[in-house]
Automatic annotation (TrEMBL):
It comes from the Bacteria. This is RND superfamily drug exporter. One of its GO terms (cellular component) is plasma membrane. It holds the Pfam family MMPL. It is a multi-pass membrane protein. Its main location: membrane. It is found in: Cell membrane. It comes from Thalassospira xiamenensis M-5 = DSM 17429. Keywords: Cell membrane, Membrane, Transmembrane, Transmembrane helix.
Length: 775
């Protein structure tokens, strides 16, 4: 026994060192963004794009940007402060680039290098309309004015490529479509200047996001202190994610500390000795440690919600310790006492592993992390009971213990509720039928906006920035599907044509799609024809006489501009407007969704996507899957129970955790807790713990240590409700709902475990107490 204990202790030490190295060394990050939980099952990069995969792609791109909006009444002061601040942000590890007004002037040369050779194929909508309407002379006169303008920047190369000055009009129109993201904005006597930071893609996964945000806030405070009258606002996914992570970590520490103290006090009131406290801490600590080590070994980052659930492992793993510790010393040697509880302990572990195993099949990494954490933690707690607790001197439960007296009182009350076998069979059937009906009939609410806590200051800043940049309204976008890139560009052109009236009516603030940056080959061919017949054929000779270079009509067989990798190097926006095998059209300030949907009704291969709706629909699909998985786990549990205890008792044993789940569902509904995917997944915990209760009681029924087991189950209930009930105090709504549902379900699990395994003679409990008194 000493050898096994030594080996197991070495394993725990190894796990502690490994977990510390992973977390302290930054090899495993902590993520708190709920949006990072979705869409991870869509792993095929070039497969058909689903709505949720597209949303995730766009959110990932947007998540690499942070926007700071500086404002001041004096423009020069504002620009000076912004330049200073931009330099501080650019110096931070994790910042890739900084965008400031006039700081990207060299981009014009890059754009000319990309677009210049295709100038005759690129027309602004206004120029195209003039050529189509036979008003080419206006464009010819504009070219002459541009030629003799004192501010002209024409070169011989640009004159050869674009003698009629068509490209500046195209770029000006493109700039308007891209929006005002890189300009100083004046409004109501105040100047606003956005400083946009592009972040390293691995900033969050590396665990350095909190440091970046802290350093950025320090830089922001420094420039604010040095510039009286300067106002600042900031937005970006990184700020929201770090705020949620900080709040979740605070909740974890608070819950873990309070739950641990509460459980220690409870054990102290039972044994009046510190030795059982040490044993319980040993088992709980090993469970927490093994769970954490398993998660950091498998996943590159831990979600903060998984950490919160990890804290609740205190309430589960302590059950195993209590099951052993409450056995009286007169029950025999440590090996004898271990032998008495081992069947129930093993069955409880097996059932929990089955339940959490189903959880590990979840399509989201969060639930997979919780499953891995729980399975590893419970196995470690089980091993600690087998290998370490027998080395601890036994201490008996004190008869004067207030919790013992509470236990006796509750047993007397429960004894009055025991029912005949026929009634229990009817109740079991009613539980199974009602649970199935509840799963179908109780409506779910998976609105993503209800899960997070939100940060009022960040939400206010985001609203201000969106208003100033004209990015308000619904965050919808359009996805264009199709195998042929040119067909998608044609579809993009049709979408712009359909939505242009809505932009004119201010029902849509603007839009930008790939076809705006790179027109389709069909459109480029049409433009060449219009330019040739409208300009070169009519005014080519006249213009050529006034130029120092020879000009020639467009070559209709020349190559076309296409959205390939070379184009994307000059225009990074191409990457942002493409996802998998689909093109994306981003909409700004969309205030009339119905009108947009109606305008797109007749265009094929076009999908209007609302990210919050897409995410909520995905969670609704997950919830359906969760109920199917939970039903499967219950089915397996029913088979195991019948095989172990026979049909009638097996049905009772199965009905106890099933009834606990029903109790949690109905209780949550009565208390107004939304039935979301996450609260549905919380039912797995109710199932696992409820199964432990009824299995412990079923295995010890009619045995000499039956009453000890009943006391252990009561202590387990107190510790579990303490741990999970504390989740109900979390500031994160998602965690709060999960904790409430579990706490409600466990109370039902405790009652049903006693009720379903009650002896047929109602005076059995009294006899047991009398026997204990004689001892």
């Amino acid at each position: 026994m000493a050898l096994r204990a030594t080996l197991w202790a070495l394993c725990l030490i190894t796990m502690a060192v490994f977990a510390t190295w992973q977390l302290r060394g930054g090899h495993t990050g902590i993520d708190a963004d709920i949006l990072s939980l979705i869409g991870q099952e869509n792993a095929a990069p070039n497969g058909p794009q689903t709505d949720i995969a597209t949303v995730r792609h766009l959110l990932a791109n947007d998540g690499q940007q942070a926007i700071f909006m500086l404002s001041h009444s004096d423009r020069d002061t504002l620009e000076t402060a912004a330049t200073d601040f931009a330099g501080r942000i650019a110096a931070l590890d994790g910042t890739q680039t900084i965008t400031l007004p006039r700081h990207n002037d060299n981009r014009f040369a890059d754009l000319m290098a990309l677009y210049g050779p295709h100038a005759n194929s690129l027309l602004s909508p206004s120029d195209r309309e003039k050529l189509a309407n036979g008003d080419a002379e206006t464009l010819y006169r504009r070219a002459i004015q541009n030629l003799y303008s004192p501010a002209t920047t024409l070169s011989s190369q640009s004159l050869k490529q674009d003698p009629f000055a068509l490209l500046p009009a195209f770029l000006s129109d493109l700039g308007a479509k891209l929006g005002t993201g890189n300009d100083v904005i004046a409004r109501d006597g105040q100047f606003y200047l956005p400083v946009m930071a592009s972040l390293s893609p691995d900033l969050r996964s590396s665990g350095n996001d909190q440091k970046w945000v802290a350093d950025a806030n320090t830089a922001l405070q420094s420039v604010t202190d040095a510039t009286p009258g300067l106002s600042v606002a900031k937005t970006g996914q990184i700020f929201f994610a770090v705020a949620e992570a900080t709040r979740a970590q605070s909740d974890v520490q608070r819950i873990a500390i309070i739950a641990t103290i509460g459980i220690l006090v409870m054990i102290g009131l039972v044994f009046y000795s510190p030795i059982p406290l040490f044993g319980a801490l040993l088992v709980v600590g090993s469970g927490l440690l093994a769970g954490l080590a398993a998660v950091v070994a498998i996943f590159p980052a831990i979600h903060a919600i998984a950490l919160v659930f990890g804290a609740t492992m205190i309430g589960i793993s302590v059950d195993y310790a209590l099951h052993y510790l409450v056995l009286c010393s007169a029950a025999g040697s440590p090996t004898d006492r271990l032998h008495k509880i081992r069947p129930g302990l093993s069955l409880g572990l097996l059932t929990s592993v089955i339940g959490f195993g189903a959880l590990s099949l979840s399509p989201t990494q969060l639930l997979s992390q919780i499953a891995v954490y729980s399975i590893a933690g419970l196995i470690a707690a089980y091993c600690s009971v087998l290998f370490l607790l027998p080395l601890i001197p036994a201490r008996d439960v004190r008869p004067s213990s207030p919790i013992r007296k509470l236990h006796d009182g509750l047993q007397a009350i429960l004894g009055k509720t025991f029912a005949p076998i026929r009634v229990r069979l009817i109740a079991s059937a009613a539980i199974i039928i009602t649970l199935a009906l509840a799963a179908f009939l109780i409506p779910g609410n998976n609105d993503i906006r209800q899960f997070g806590h939100g940060n009022d200051a960040l939400i206010s800043d985001a609203g201000k920035i969106a208003d100033i940049l004209g990015l308000g309204g619904s965050p919808v976008f359009i996805r264009i599907d199709g195998d042929d890139p040119q067909n998608r560009l044609e579809t993009g052109k049709a979408v712009r044509h359909a939505l242009t009236p809505l932009i004119a009516d201010n029902r849509l603030g603007g839009m930008i799609g790939l076809s705006d940056l790179i027109p389709s080959i069909t459109r480029q061919t049409e433009n060449r024809g219009l330019v040739t017949t409208g300009l070169y054929d009519r005014f080519g000779a006249a213009l050529s006489n006034q130029l120092p270079v020879n000009i020639t009509a467009p070559d209709m067989d020349a190559g076309y501009l296409v959205p390939d990798e070379d184009a994307a190097k000059t225009l990074p926006e191409i990457t942002l407007l493409h996802s998998g095998g689909s093109d994306i059209i981003r909409l700004r300030n969309a205030t009339d969704i119905d009108a947009i949907r109606l305008a797109l009704a007749d265009i094929q291969n076009v999908t209007l996507i609302n990210p919050p709706t897409a995410i909520s629909d995905q969670f609704a699909a997950y919830r359906l899957w969760a109920w199917i998985a939970l039903g499967s786990a219950l089915g397996v549990a029913a088979i195991l129970a019948v095989l172990r205890y026979g049909f009638r008792t097996g049905i009772f044993v199965f009905a106890a955790p099933a009834g606990a789940i029903l109790f949690a569902v109905l209780g949550g509904y009565v208390f107004g807790i939304d039935q979301s995917f996450f609260t549905t997944m919380a039912l797995f915990l109710v199932f696992a713990i409820g199964a432990d209760y009824v299995l412990f009681l079923a295995e010890s029924r009619n045995s000499p240590h039956d009453d000890d087991t009943r006391l252990a189950v009561l202590l387990s209930l107190i510790s579990s409700v303490l741990a999970f009930g504390l989740l109900a105090t979390s500031s994160v709504p998602l965690v709060r709902d999960i904790g409430s549902v579990i706490a409600i379900g466990l109370i039902g699990a405790w009652f049903l475990a006693f009720w379903m395994t009650a002896p047929t003679e109602t005076n059995h409990n009294t006899q047991t107490q009398n026997q204990r008194g004689q001892e």
